[in-house]
Amino acid sequence: MPKMKSHSGARKTFKLTASGKIKRRKMNRSHILTSKTTKRKRRLRKSGLVSKPDSKKIKMLLL
């Protein structure tokens, strides 16, 4: 039986940290940035972490 492939969309979207947590990009930073305040855009630059219940599902897609 061949090896299982990881989900290509999830592979491009999420990254695993060394401790096993999953990093994600914050939403609302792709377009229509003129209506958003500078403070809001600056906070959206930082990456976030996936919540514990969702991380189990995403790990299955990545492995």
Task: Give keywords.
elongated; alpha+beta; Factor Xa Inhibitor
Structural class: alpha+beta
Percent helix range = 25-40%
Order of helices and strands: HEEHEH
- Tally of helical segments: 3
CATH fold assignment = Factor Xa Inhibitor
Report what the structure shows.
There is one protein chain. This protein is α+β, with helices and mostly antiparallel strands. It has one domain (8-62): Factor Xa Inhibitor (Irregular). Helix content is 40%, strand content 11%. It is built from 3 helices and 3 strands; from the N terminus they run αββαβα. The chain has helices at 8-13, 38-45, 52-62; strands at 15-16, 22-24, 48-49. A 3-stranded antiparallel sheet has the order 1-2-3. Strand 1 (15-16) and strand 2 form a beta hairpin.
What topology does this entry show?
Blueprint lengths: L7 H6 L1 E2 L5 E3 L13 H8 L2 E2 L2 H11 L1
Summarize, please.
With 63 residues, the chain is an alpha+beta fold.
